[in-house]
Amino acid sequence: EVQLVESGGGLVQAGGSLRLSCAASGFTFDDYAIGWFRQAPGKEHEEVACISPSDGSTYILDSVKGRFTISSDNAKNTVYLQMNSLSPEDAAVYYCALDSRGWCVDMDYWGKGTLVTVSS
Question: Is the pLDDT of residue 54 over 90?
Fold first, then answer.
């Protein structure tokens, strides 16, 4: 059973930082990718970042470039999202998801999400 468990969310002041973690387990895919998505009330569901641990290729949403960084610890099967200079516009439920084909396009499995709240 594939499991994706997010952690690291919480309340942070504007301008502060958080590091989200996605611990993945229960799979042996030859190639895969893990991405971060977010959903906030009144806003569209959007892909924030994605990484292919096999080759290190990454995608970053334009609106968070320069502030957010995605990385992976392959030994731990964990993907991180470092979020700096947070603003209230970044507040959302953040989900990690896994694409078993490694393209960061069609996500097969999803975590339950972690809430990020940013106070002004």
Answer: no
